[in-house]
Write a structure and sequence with these properties.
alpha+beta; globular
């Protein structure tokens, strides 16, 4: 992990293709570290959530190259590491388990954290989750509480109850969310201790009921779309 942090901190200070080309061999070694971490996370999470079984590291990790087409920041490379273990992979639209490592603590990409839930769902999926909240909001609250040490991510919330849903319900705060996740900030000490994947999996295990309930709503939406 020290090698990973060192590489990304130097990359952040020299975020250009010339520097990266000179240091490609270092990146290759860091990439192997990320791949091994992803493999361990997949194996550990699939032991309590079989829906993620059979995933490959490339299904759960991200290219280091940034898409700068629509960004004012033209830095060519990401300065963070993410591993997202979800049924059918990171682009599937299902809820899952995400480890985020930000060696540079960038204010836009956040700090080190574990995050479990459903990120940026499609409108039809969003509606399905909100209907799940209307029908089984108490269950979702209980599943959030089961994930001790995690907190509800309220970073993307509507100011009002979405159109088509009743106002003033017991779970109005959950209805107004635009994505549903629970998060646990991590310290560098947590990341640098041995057996990172094993310890992350132990934390994620408590979030499994929350993820499963969200994926019940996702699956229903996908079935309706067929």
């Amino acid at each position: 992990m020290e090698e990973l942090f060192d590489f990304f901190r130097r990359l952040d200070a020299n975020n250009n293709r010339d520097w990266f080309d000179v240091h490609r061999s270092e990146w290759a070694q860091v990439k192997r570290t990320i791949t091994a971490l992803a493999e361990e996370l997949i194996a550990g999470i699939s032991a309590f959530d079989p829906s993620v079984g059979g995933l490959r590291p490339q299904d759960c990790t991200y290219r280091i190259a940034r898409d700068t087409r629509f960004s004012n920041d033209k830095s060519p490379y990401k300065n963070w590491v993410g591993v997202y273990v979800a049924p059918h992979g990171k682009k599937s639209g299902y809820a899952g388990y995400y480890l985020h490592i930000a060696p540079n603590h960038d204010r836009l990409v956040g700090e080190h954290s574990l995050w479990a839930g459903l990120y940026c769902p499609e409108p039809v999926v969003m509606r399905s989750v909100r209907e799940e909240i209307l029908d089984n909001g108490d269950e979702l609250v209980k599943n959030i509480r089961k994930a001790s040490g995690f907190r509800l991510d309220r970073s993307d919330t509507l100011k009002r109850t979405p159109v088509g849903f009743p106002t003033g319900t017991e779970h109005d705060d959950l209805l107004r969310l635009k994505q549903w996740g629970i998060e646990k900030p991590l310290t560098e000490d947590f990341l640098f201790q041995p057996n990172l994947a094993e310890r992350a999996v132990a934390e994620f295990r408590r979030t499994a009921p929350f993820v499963a309930q969200l994926n019940r709503a996702v699956q229903y939406a996908y079935e309706e779309m067929r």
